[in-house]
Amino acid sequence: MTRQKMLTRATPYLFILPCAILVFIVLLYPVSAGIVKSLYNENLLIPAPVKFVGVQNFGALFSDPLFLGALHRSIVWTLVILVFEMIFGMFFALFLNANIYCKKLLRCLILIPWVIPNAISGIIWKWFLNESYGFLNYLLRSMRFIEHNLPWLSNNELAAISVVCIIIWKNIPFVTITLLAGLQSISPDLYEAARVDGAGFLTTFFRITMPMISSIILITGILTSIWNFNQLDIIQVVTRGGPGVATLSMPIFIYRLFMESFQTSYASSAAVVMMIIMTIPTVIYVRKLLKR
After folding, report:
1. In whole angstroms, what is the distance from residue 190 CA to residue 100 CA?
2. Which of 52, 131, 174, 239 has its CA at 20 to 30 Å from residue 147's CA atom?
3. How far is 182 from 110, CA to CA, in rounded Å?
4. DSSP per-residue letters across 150-189
């Protein structure tokens, strides 16, 4: 092989080399370092020699009620949020795809919750749900639905419901826009032919709409599930995992271990478990993209 041919073959790899190095530095190295650290007993508050303990941290995790509770909570929340955000997202997508007045304006307005940063959204909702001066309690009292202020963020059940609702509110715009894009790719001739044959709304929805955008629904559901399982900002700002452990999710559990207890190895082992769980929908997502 001549030098010129070797240079021609190597040129594309030279172009992607800077990006590959950046990916290694930003992604692969931290992940690898976390996996290695999870096999040791490092604790920044204990001035003791760091020793290799193998999978001992993982054994301790699965006997830790806090970890098991956080894992169960994150999985249940992710499934609940997925169901409601897909239902509301589909409803708004169908609404915005219809011939309505100010359709373009409404499509812009529905994006507002999505473009607001998570931390800012958390602050807004924390004020809105405040027990003493929150607008929600004021509104409910004005409408005579309640007589006394409700402790939205200090009651275990209400805090969990509040956090789930906030995340649903945050994700609905993304789901709506992606499903709307799928709806607009369906030819109107299919609906016209269905109406000529006497098909109603439900028939056309389940026989035409759903099959035509099923791949988009799947990809959207996988993406939002990954984001919801990894949700940290909103929960940390609104409840910080409280009251007690009522809103303690996996990311908050790991954050507490690493940033408050300084149990770096134990936190890394929890992060590795979380990464393994997230690998499942990620593999499905990548395989779906490759098929397309």
Report:
1. 21
2. 239
3. 17
4. --TTTSHHHHHHHHHHHHHHHHHHHHHHHHHHHHHTS-HH
Give the Cβ contact number of residue 1 at 10 Å: 6
Decide: 265 and 57 in contact? Cβ < 8 Å.
yes
In DSSP terms, 40 is beta-bridged to 52
At 139, give phi and psi (nearest 5°).
Answer: -65, -45
Amino acid, res. 232: L
On whether the CB atoms of residues 38 and 57 are closer than 8 A, the answer is: yes
Separation of alpha carbons 191 and 22, rounded Å: 48
Nearest Cα neighbor of 74 from 264, 253, 240 is 253
Residues ≥6 apart with Cβ < 8 Å to 252? 70, 232, 235, 236, 240, 241
- Domains belonging to the chain, first-starting first, are 65-291 (1.10.3720.10)
pTM to 2 decimals?
0.86
Q: What is the DSSP letter of 220?
A: H
The series of mean pLDDT values per 10 residues for the chain, 292 residues long, is 72 83 83 88 83 89 92 93 94 89 85 90 92 89 88 91 94 93 86 82 86 87 89 92 90 91 90 88 74 66
Please state the length of the chain: 292
Closest alpha carbon to 56 in 38, 36, 77: 38
